[in-house]
Protein 1
Amino acid sequence: MYQYDTIDKAMLEDRAAEFRGQVARRLAGEITEDQFKPIRLMNGLYLQLHAYMLRVAIPYGTLNPTQLRKLAWIARTYDKGYGHFTTRTNLQFHWIKLADTPEILDQLASVDLHAIQTSGNCIRNVTSDPYAGATAEELDDPRVWAEAMRQWSTFHPEFSFLPRKFKIAITAAPKDRTAAKVHDIGLVLRRARDGALGFEVMVGGGLGRTPYVGPTIREFLPANRLFSYLEAILRVYNRHGRRDNAFKARIKILVAALGKEEFARQVEAEWAKIGDSTDLPDTELARIRGAFAPKSFETLPARSEAFETAKAADPAFARFVRNNVKPHKKPGYAIVDVSLKAIGDTPGDASAEQMEVVADLAERYGQGDVRVTHEQNLVLPHVKLDDLPVVHAALAAAGLATPNINLISDIIACPGLDYCALANARAIPIAQHIAEKFRDQERAERVGELKIKISGCINACGHHHVGHIGILGVDKKGEEFYQLTLGGSGAEDATVGQILGPALPYDRVADAVDTLVDVYLRERQGDERFLDTFRRTGTAPFKEAVYADVH
Amino acid sequence: MPTYIRIEDGRARLAEDAFSHVADDIADLETGGVILSLARFEAEGDRLISEGRRVGVRLASDEQVEALAYDLPRISLVALDFPKFRDGRAYTNARLLRERLGFKGEVRAVGDVLREQAGFMLRVGFDAFEPADGSNAQEWDAALRRYRHVYQRAADGRAPAFAERER
Ligand code: SF4
């Protein structure tokens, strides 16, 4: 893992000191809430329905045990004993007092964490593959590039006041776990025929009011030219993105308005003028790469007797392995998905105690590495097969071993009306009702991969457009209604879902999902996933069943 | 008169402004340097400069510095407007003025100019400021030297972290 050096640490200390002064000015009444708002927003501090919310950045979703323990300590000391992992792989504390925030930022800085650029119209935390460095699928370690982008984007003097927020995702595996195609920029590592490393560059994907799958504007960008090319994209956007209407200000609107060819042409023209003056030197890339060099993996047999014995003896463990354990690039190791989707709990929430359990396990059995996924779960990327039974037992004791990764109860939900001032409707209880319906793991496994994503309003923080089943909260004369979309995907086969029909009232949503699943089980052929069946049949059978039910 | 802060010898200082902003509809120009809109500069700039006047140009945030490319040698200063602090187009304009067009004269931040933006502005090449938040030169000086390090190359020539690390 990348270790912050004195320079990286000094950046965080200086930021924390600056914010301390700004909060003091606000608390002393020298500035009004209106004047303070842009300042606090530059530090990830939002005013929500009930309290301040502090959004802590978890750069490319990577944490070490010390950091996770500090987050647990903050949750216990300054919040109500838990935190919420978001679809941006950040952590939100929802019950924060303004006067505590300078101390919290100092505490975060002491373990190389911060809230920089977790809000505002700037380049946000980069999303990367939570299996980076552990999966055999990847061409290169995307964290190397994500860390380089973290540094490049931090306090970027030209691009900190863009027309709108800006999100970048990077992946190096054919199976996309970052939703790269619905980011402002999606980068996918590729190899040219001569073996050279580069990126496919997609620009202008996004969700919100007008969802788009980002078109590719360059099939192959030589890897060492990444930063000049990013500058060219950002500069074209900074100059030409709309600033008259916040809903039309994302880069996707500019790309759609110009057309991808014209947008690409403008970027290439600007890139030619920039030259390579802003590219990162190979020496710095090598330094960062060194920090992510493979851990000291032991040479182990591919088969672990302890693991096989436990699997044969304990059906619960076997079920966990089927759903939450993925192959590792090294024999004798595995990737473990830690579910934050216990049935009946809030998706993405983790208590201080749970964070500490994961931190301890990472330290003892996981090479000190923890990841956060954009699907609001955690990952222990390097666990020995031999250790899996004890790791499973410890996770299960902490309520973290729900064997439901990628299953119907592994639901993404935004905070919705329970916290968010922009919400039309609640998202969390809808997720809870659906999960309850599929509490029977046997049935959930029979249903197989099914991604449900719920947003409390059209801002789409819950990524509903790209859910296999998407659920969007809408307001109908002051009542909570929910629009269902089907067939979305945020993965390498990215698609925006289709609206099923008229919105449903709050208490019909979970039943409707149940009906959709029944239709799928009836219609499916062979080992089709829900998504495959839907793509084959279209909305008709689903629509008929759901609305027959309603009438 | 707005507060006018200049960077001199690396420090932000309160300074005497030798220029006045001239609105497009004012016929009589005061003596001394004038700052004109791009439209008025295009109409009257040649004449004023030939009369020996020092002329600056104020660019709105939707105007691009490339429009001034051929006039820069004759222009004393370029004022870049922030209609709202959130409108970041002037950062690109400033950086291109310095890095691409090689402008050595004053680049002044005008409009909704807040001390919170000081560090960013300095890095892209601004060297003069008319703050809109009542802040003074001491506060600007502190804001400008808040961060001991930077991560990127920009127009100020500061060595970024990756260059510092090589030393
Ligand atoms: S989708 Fe809407 S309700 Fe949900 S967190 Fe985002 S803004 Fe709030």
Note: Chain A touches chain B through 38 residues (CB under 8 Å).
Protein 2
Amino acid sequence: MRFVGYLAMGVAAALAAGQAGAGTLDDVKKRGSLLCGVTTGLAGFAAPNDKGEWAGFDVDVCRAVAAAVFGDATKVKYVPTTAVSRFPALQSGEVDLLSRNTTWTYDRDVKLGFDFVGVSFYDGQGFMVKKGLNVKSALQLNGATVCVQTGTSTELNLADYFRANKMSYKPVIYEKADEIRVAYDQGRCDVYTTDRSGLAAQRTQMSKPDDHVVLPEVISKEPLGPLVRHGDNQWGDVVRWAFNAMIIAEEKGITAANVDQVKASSQDPEVRRLLGVEGDFGTRLSLENDWPYKVIKQVGNIGESYERHIGPKTPIGLDRGVNNLWSSGGLVYSPPYR
Amino acid sequence: MAVRGIEARGGRRNGLAFLYDARVRAICYQVLTVLLFLLAVGYLAHNTLQNLATRGIASGFKFLYQPTGFGLAMSLLPYDELSSYGRSYLVGVLNTLLVASLGVVLATLLGFLVGIARLSNNWLLSRLAGMYVELVRNVPLLLQILLLYFGVLQTLPSLRESLSIGGVVFLNIRGVFAPAPILQSGFAAIPIAFAVAVAASFWIWRWARRRQRETGQPFQTGWAAAALLLGLPAVAALLTGMPVSFEYPVLQGFNFQGGFVIIPEFVALLAALVLYTAAFIGEVVRAGILAVSHGQTEAARSLGLGDGQTLRLVVIPQALRVIVPPLTSQYLNLTKNSSLAAAVGFPDVVQIFSGTVLNQTGQAIECVAMVMLVYFTISLSISFFMNWYNRRIALVER
Ligand SMILES: N[C@@H](CCC(=O)N[C@@H](CS)C(=O)NCC(=O)O)C(=O)O
């Protein structure tokens, strides 16, 4: 299956006559749906819900983009990708955008030919072990067998960390997140390492979630965010601002529930611009003037999405912490809509 | 000739007359075709490079010298995260070759047994073989690999509850841990003795064949060879005072330390490939044997040959002619199917190179091409060898 993707990519790269794959927005509009690359299933971030519809924090970015482009958040075709298949999928045009807990790194930005449009979740890599092992710190892991997903920044950080601390480890390397989960759960490895958000999500799916602890060490920075192909700036702008609109909405206290009321009554100029009441800002992206209104109405603001899928009240139970708005002591911040 | 002929008849025509020569024209067409082909390839290559550049994707093979930064679960070469991408390629190729070659040998052995068992007069045996073939052939290979891995090997006891065989070999969810031989000085005598035994066995085999041809006296070559192959190295080992010691695996900290380990990812992949391919080979063998007319068996019997001899000396050599060509495709299938390794995390060349490396470097075209080269080479080698073998055993018509 994967080979088909590569082949398509090779052929596409060979035939496309020297243009930088511009025009994704037109392609998406013509197609009538957005092709959004997500995980093969990671609870809270992207997984089919009990109705069989994709849902999650990462999925909401796809929905926001579809709401901005079509005024309809459901016009998305979700393409499940593994850590390995995600990049060829984006490079070859199999997907229009990746929203798949992907870390923004120098190499991916510069060498792989992508543009990250923002950070949706500030994360770091951690380790999970069984409580029974009585391990309290990652520095006690010398000689451990570690389950890790291939094609990730995780496997590189892992090697770096053990080398820097003069420890050895035995890697067991899988391609799919659920394979790792099963293998770790059954005891193939002592340690499961990935982004701490991923650990929290995976833990909820273990046979006995309470039997596992996440060790205190955070060994890397993992800014996760949506990304598009390098070179198509118009499309990059669409995705970036669809995402930013969710942040601005939270800053302004606009939610899916109150957006109509705010639209009717707000006197805040930025809010009026955002909701398409004043000016023609929306159309400058070649979209409907009130596209942010549709994003907020159908998807909600970033805080709502967080609380709905991964927040403390969900099984994933991630405190908002650094992923709070800047105005609440976090790192989440959007440039102004003006 | 022809050119002159035309000129002779149409001397008034211009100097392009040679164009009417069929041979010249044929060459022209071929040159033209090659030129067009090269142009097309050049155009595509140029376009590809340019597109990669505009999209900001790196290209070229320089990355092969860069350190990978990731670890691997199994390697036949010294490898760590500071090793180069080029080295990880070699590791992957060797792992693929290991699975494929062991797979081919084991699947052939099992396949022949199954094929013969299916034709056995023993009702139970032939039914069992038949059931095995139907069951295995009709379930997708990927499912079988996953079943073997997650359903069987991953349900073995945990590390701390390992099954122990005599306190030296341990079996658990992380694989088989066995003592590793450590060679001491004087060890060389053993392989030398073995080599001598091989040479001697070969010589005996030729001598026995000649004697049988000349005098009709058979000789138990098999037993003699077995005695030599086992006996000579054993004698050498005794004489040199057992120059091998063993390092035993001991449970220490997180894992067994020392000894050597066979990881379950490898076992699952190899076992599934062997079981699956053997079912097909079994059918190939059965068809081959059935293709030998029954009269041959009856004739052999009436000459007084026993069951085994009839099979070995009369039926199989003739059946091989039917068996070998489809056997070749089974070998090719097995090799290519070994790329399902990624499903259980066995680091074959596909998982390492068109998986991890491709992902870390983003150089899809280079990585996929290098992986294709591996399969291309292996497949062609298998084909060449089998074709050679096929010609060798082909019926020599008089
Ligand atoms: N952030 C890391 C890791 C991303 C990643 O693949 N995480 C895993 C484990 S949390 C995952 O989401 N897997 C889901 C899947 O393979 O479908 C990266 O970008 O390389």
Note: The first strand of chain B starts at residue 163 and ends at 165.
Protein 3
Amino acid sequence: MTDTAVESGVLTRTLTVSVNGTGRSAEVENRLLLVHFLRETLGLTGTHVGCDTTSCGACTVLLDGVPVKSCTVLAVGVEGREITTVEGLAGAGGLSPVQEGFHQEHGLQCGFCTPGMMLASTALLAENPDPSEEEIRWALSGNICRCTGYQNIVKAVQYAAAKMKEEH
Amino acid sequence: MYPATFEYHAPASVEEAISLLERYGDEAKLLAGGQSLIPLMKLRFASPRALVDVNRIEGLDSIGEDDGHLAIGALVRHKDCERSEALRGRYGVLGDAAPQISDPIVRNLGTVAGSLAHADPQGDWGSALLAAGAHVEAVGPGGTRTIELDELFQGPFTTCLEPTEVVTSVRVPDPGPRAGGTYLKLERKVGDFATVGVAVHVSLDNGTVRRAGIALTAVGPRNLRARTAEEALAGATLDDDTIREAAELAAEAAQPRSDHRGSADYKRNVVRVFTERGLRKAAETAQAA
Ligand SMILES: Cc1cc2nc3c(=O)[nH]c(=O)nc-3n(C[C@H](O)[C@H](O)[C@H](O)COP(=O)(O)OP(=O)(O)OC[C@H]3O[C@@H](n4cnc5c(N)ncnc54)[C@H](O)[C@@H]3O)c2cc1C
Ligand code: FES
Ligand code: FES
């Protein structure tokens, strides 16, 4: 894959990515951040902007399954890759185990941090289906919540882990 | 916050990256994990005319033994180091540093090489790798050169890299079978930079210290080597008196400043305590090997 298409002075690109399993393509500015591509270009406003300085994790999405802060990723940098946002968590059978856990265990109050929390939790459980409380807290330590005190977020992830075990 | 406009290239090889850098003179920047550069561009502290994104270059993402060294490719992420078995035990100074950098999500993207090239005096890799005696391999239009970290770091956010050079790997010399180390970091909360960090890496030969590396984070204009402490340890046995003396020397080598994270005196004291603790742990690992 050589990169000869871009000439000096060109400030935009055609970007093709898979978002929640659907191929999406758009002409974007090179400087467009992934979070704005999702929210503004695609209208997927479930991904939030909190601090805009790489600190809070509200903008967390999965890039090929790995949590990243989409306020600190260039949209053009994810060409050809797979993005999962909160809109992609629920399946045909309804809420995902993590979503159900946040619902059942009151893992949210205002909900601002919740999409990022759920994506980071989803990635944790994909890698470690039976995490200890400490492992959950560690995995979510890049996501800040102003409301809950985290207690119920931990319980939500434990609920999801138990639910996933049951389903297998 | 939006970065200023820029041209964007995603070359498939190091050669292609270098020729792009040459084309822009000093107006282009390499983009690796983006976890330092993108925030700077959003704040408009950096507004390069072009970005050369190295993430599509293959073969730069592995950690492995190579010719008497542990080679860490330029696209190895902090998270890869946190998970790597190779960075435990003898290379414990690196394995212990990795999970203390930033937060788990930033660690998924940030790279070791990008941290070194960024040369933040508060960066953790700079100290861990200085203590381990590492160098980088940088490829430019004229070929490859080896740069010792002590030479790489010129000052705050300043390295001796040419604008047309790409770091391709970070190389840590094999410390031999009886070695150990650790990285101790005081931070106010997850994701914060160090108030103080101390890296310790020791290799033993017949019970005495063959080489000791001690480096300090956030207590100077760059990651500092505590040379006098290292020299005092060379050839010595790691007994209580030697360890305490080295810890005093490391504290003297620190150049802390008072700020919102703590007073200069406090930070100097933390350097002393961390050096002592670090040396005890390093000795334990090395002697058990
Ligand atoms: C919230 C937050 C907290 C953080 N906390 C810490 C912390 O506690 N400790 C810590 O050490 N770091 C911390 N960081 C910084 C983080 O570790 C970065 O990942 C790292 O400093 C830069 O690596 P990068 O791959 O993201 O580089 P980039 O941001 O892509 O690049 C940084 C610089 O290096 C240059 N560069 C990148 N790759 C190369 C290469 N191969 N050759 C030559 N030049 C290159 C770029 O041109 C740029 O100038 C934090 C960052 C954030 C956002
Ligand atoms: S909005 Fe991206 S980390 Fe806060
Ligand atoms: S629920 Fe309000 S910030 Fe977490």
Note: Chain A touches chain B through 37 residues (CB under 8 Å).
